[in-house]
Amino acid sequence: MAKLSTPFAFLAGLVSYALGQAQEWGQCGGTGWTGATTCVTGTVCVVVNPYYSQCQPGTTTSAPSTTTTSSTTPSSTAGLNTLAKAAGKLYFGSATDNPELSDSAYVKILSNVKEFGQITPGNSMKWDATEPTRGTFTFTNGDVVANLAKANGQLLRGHNCVWHNQLPSWVSNGQFTAADLTSVIQNHCSTVVSHYKGQILRSYSWDVVNEPFNDDGTWRSDVFYNTLNSSYVSIALKAARAADPNAKLYINDYNIENSGAKATAMLNLVKQLIADGVPIDGVGFQSHFIVGSVPTSFQTVLEQFAALGLEVAITELDIRMTLPETDALLAQQAKDYESVVQACMNVEKCVGITIWDYTDKYSWVPSTFSGQGAALPWDSNLAIKPAYNGIVAALS
Ligand code: G3I
């Protein structure tokens, strides 16, 4: 939303409010939308997808622009997971979340093991969902996702035990002693990981620690680091190993896909954990990228971690663009998906690729990055995009 930084702008904002106009980057239409359908001066209502129209900078007075992309024909009908497995990978997978599981057309594609051999719950195994009050665990939504994986014969990546985000306030605001927080972490990781042990086809791996570093490679300041220093990482990993000795234990982060301070910090952490005999099996590269600027040293970084004897995985891949999507952007996105997936293909210890949901209909991107979206290989009508064929090209 545009900032109202002057008295004039403030008055203009009041006028647009009185006229019922949506602000810049605000919603102005879409299925079920009952708010303003016109935009403030200097912006125009753009149909992003059937469910969401947005006021974007522009001055046209013609009808809202729509995406005029042609439909995509799959270059292979084998399916992404089938191709990945044929190429020696364990899976090609997708994140999902409970609200969209009431969409039967969506679930049908998610459950097609030719496309997806693995699923990750996007939210329902996080701390705020599983232990909202101390010592009281709720697995209802997580179980829905785990049971879907089981019914479909798909692997599950557990996500996650310890993260600075989506914490209940009793954790984030807790005034813990080091001993108390150690016990809190142990109880949480142990209970959640052991709950899913054996309940499902195979709890393949767990993101035990998520996003421990800032982008400059320093430790993220949160209740865990501030109370326990970096020792919280080994506390969580040891609790997870004891809870499910068969699950692969991961540390997962973003912006470690290119060489730099953050990737180096992660490498050094993992080396130290190995030297200390702490259980660690893999590093997850979230891979939330932008069209036209995917990392150039991804394969090199993957190889550096693999050289430590670890497995690596692409855990949350999406490649967003500034909307509206155009044929040129979709073509570039296809190349970008191909090069990212190719990096995993070129590294034997890269076990699999997970996209962060498969359709633009349910992507986290538009609500987080104003004016951006269309980040996934299926569009908001559940039709494949050129990105799908980019993935096929790398997997084939
Ligand atoms: O559950 C509440 C609901 O009660 C409330 O009515 C609604 C109103 O906004 O919010 C709901 O919570 C939302 C939650 O997703 C569940 O839908 C939060 O607002 C929203 O912020 C949250 O977003 C999730 C985000 O993590 C939080 O950081 C995304 O869905 C999820 O895809 C995203 O996933 C993360 C990975 O875990 C870690 N890596 C980055 C990735 C993308 O941000």
UniProtKB/TrEMBL annotation:
<dbReference type="InterPro" id="IPR031158">
    <property type="entry name" value="GH10_AS"/>
</dbReference>
<keyword id="KW-0964">Secreted</keyword>
<dbReference type="Pfam" id="PF00734">
    <property type="entry name" value="CBM_1"/>
</dbReference>
<keyword id="KW-0119">Carbohydrate metabolism</keyword>
<dbReference type="InterPro" id="IPR017853">
    <property type="entry name" value="GH"/>
</dbReference>
<comment type="similarity">
    <text>Belongs to the glycosyl hydrolase 10 (cellulase F) family.</text>
</comment>
<comment type="pathway">
    <text>Glycan degradation; xylan degradation.</text>
</comment>
<keyword id="KW-0326">Glycosidase</keyword>
<feature type="region of interest" description="Disordered">
    <location>
        <begin position="57"/>
        <end position="78"/>
    </location>
</feature>
<dbReference type="InterPro" id="IPR044846">
    <property type="entry name" value="GH10"/>
</dbReference>
<dbReference type="GO" id="GO:0045493">
    <property type="term" value="P:xylan catabolic process"/>
</dbReference>
<dbReference type="GO" id="GO:0005576">
    <property type="term" value="C:extracellular region"/>
</dbReference>
<keyword id="KW-0624">Polysaccharide degradation</keyword>
<feature type="compositionally biased region" description="Low complexity">
    <location>
        <begin position="59"/>
        <end position="78"/>
    </location>
</feature>
<dbReference type="GO" id="GO:0031176">
    <property type="term" value="F:endo-1,4-beta-xylanase activity"/>
</dbReference>
<feature type="domain" description="CBM1">
    <location>
        <begin position="20"/>
        <end position="56"/>
    </location>
</feature>
<feature type="domain" description="GH10">
    <location>
        <begin position="77"/>
        <end position="394"/>
    </location>
</feature>
<feature type="active site" description="Nucleophile">
    <location>
        <position position="316"/>
    </location>
</feature>
<dbReference type="InterPro" id="IPR000254">
    <property type="entry name" value="CBD"/>
</dbReference>
<dbReference type="InterPro" id="IPR001000">
    <property type="entry name" value="GH10_dom"/>
</dbReference>
<dbReference type="InterPro" id="IPR035971">
    <property type="entry name" value="CBD_sf"/>
</dbReference>
<keyword id="KW-0378">Hydrolase</keyword>
<dbReference type="Pfam" id="PF00331">
    <property type="entry name" value="Glyco_hydro_10"/>
</dbReference>
<feature type="signal peptide">
    <location>
        <begin position="1"/>
        <end position="22"/>
    </location>
</feature>
<protein>
    <recommendedName>
        <fullName>Beta-xylanase</fullName>
        <ecNumber>3.2.1.8</ecNumber>
    </recommendedName>
</protein>
<keyword id="KW-0732">Signal</keyword>
<keyword id="KW-0858">Xylan degradation</keyword>
<dbReference type="GO" id="GO:0030248">
    <property type="term" value="F:cellulose binding"/>
</dbReference>
